[in-house]
Design a protein that fits this description.
This protein has about 250 residues and is mostly helical. The chain is built from 13 helices and 2 strands, in the order αααααββαααααααα. The longest helix is centred in the middle third of the chain and has 25 residues, at about 115-140.
C-alpha cells in the first residue's frame, strides 16, 4: 500500500524511481496536467499505486513531481473521468482497474442523441466485423461452431415464442470474436457490443427485423461451416448492411 509522503520518499527513493522508469521525478515539461496524468496512469498500471489503494495526498504528489497542487488536481480529474481513479468522500482518491462498462457507458448515452455518431458506429462495424468473420472462418474449432449453432437455435426458439432475442444477438457476435482466438479482438468486440445495446433494442423491435437477424446469422454460420473466409466476410458485410438500414435515421 502506498502511503503518504514517507511512503514515496523512504526507504530507498532511488530504487523506487528506477522501478518507475523515472516516473516519480520532477516534471519540467509544459502541458503539466496531461503529463502528470500520464505519469500517474503508468504508475497505476505498473503497480506502484496498486488498484484499491489510496494515492498519496495532493500535497505529497505535488512535492514529488515538483508542480502545484492545482496541476495535480487537474490531472486527477482527468484520470477519474476515464475510470482509473475513484474519489471517496473522507477517504481519499483510490486507484482502480479500468472497467469497459465505465468507459463505454458515457459514449453509449451520447449515441442516443447523436444519430451522426450512430452512423459512424455502423461504419466501424462495416470495417471491423467482416474481418472478424474472415478470421473466425480460418481458425474456429468444432466447439466454436457448435456454440454458434446453439446460439442460433436459441435465437430461433425465442423468436418463435415472441420473446426478445437481444441477448442471443449480442452473444453471437461475441462468440464469433472468441472463435478467432485473438484476445484483443474479443475485448474490442465486447466494447462494441456494449455500445450497441440501445441500438439493438430499437432495431430488434422493428417488424421483421428479428427474422432478418436470424437469416444473417444463418448465412455467416453456413460460410463458417465450409471454412470459407471470403464468404464469411461477405455474409457479415451483408448482415451489417441490413442492420444499417434498420438503425440509421
Amino acid at each position: 500500500m502506498v502511503g503518504p509522503v514517507k511512503a514515496l520518499s523512504v526507504p530507498s527513493p532511488s530504487r523506487r524511481v528506477k522501478r518507475g522508469n523515472g516516473l516519480l521525478a520532477p516534471i519540467k515539461k509544459t502541458r503539466l496536467a496531461e503529463e502528470i496524468a500520464d505519469r500517474i496512469r503508468r504508475l497505476i498500471l505498473g503497480g506502484t499505486f496498486p488498484s484499491g489503494q489510496p494515492l498519496p495526498s495532493e500535497r505529497a504528489l505535488a512535492k514529488r513531481f515538483g508542480v502545484s497542487r492545482g496541476s495535480i488536481r487537474d490531472a486527477l480529474r482527468v484520470l477519474e473521468t476515464i475510470g482509473l481513479l475513484e474519489t471517496r468522500h473522507g477517504q481519499g482518491t483510490f486507484a482502480q482497474e479500468l472497467d469497459v462498462n465505465r468507459l463505454v457507458a458515457p459514449l453509449a448515452s451520447v449515441l442516443t442523441y447523436r444519430p451522426d455518431l450512430e452512423a459512424e458506429l455502423v461504419d466501424v462495424r462495416r470495417m471491423f466485423e467482416p474481418a472478424v468473420a474472415r478470421a473466425a472462418a480460418r481458425r474456429l474449432s468444432d466447439e466454436d461452431l457448435a456454440a454458434l449453432d446453439d446460439l442460433l437455435d436459441s435465437q430461433r426458439r425465442k423468436r418463435k415464442a415472441g420473446q426478445s432475442t437481444i441477448l442471443e444477438d449480442t452473444a453471437f457476435h461475441a462468440a464469433l470474436a472468441r472463435a478467432t482466438g485473438n484476445r484483443v479482438l474479443v475485448s474490442l468486440m465486447e466494447t462494441l457490443n456494449n455500445l450497441l445495446v440501445e441500438s439493438r433494442k430499437l432495431s430488434l423491435k422493428q417488424k421483421g427485423r428479428p427474422e432478418r437477424s436470424i437469416k444473417g446469422h444463418e448465412a455467416v454460420i453456413a460460410a463458417l461451416r465450409r471454412r470459407d473466409a471470403d464468404a464469411a466476410a461477405e455474409a457479415m458485410r451483408s448482415h451489417i448492411e441490413e442492420i444499417a438500414k434498420a438503425t440509421i435515421r
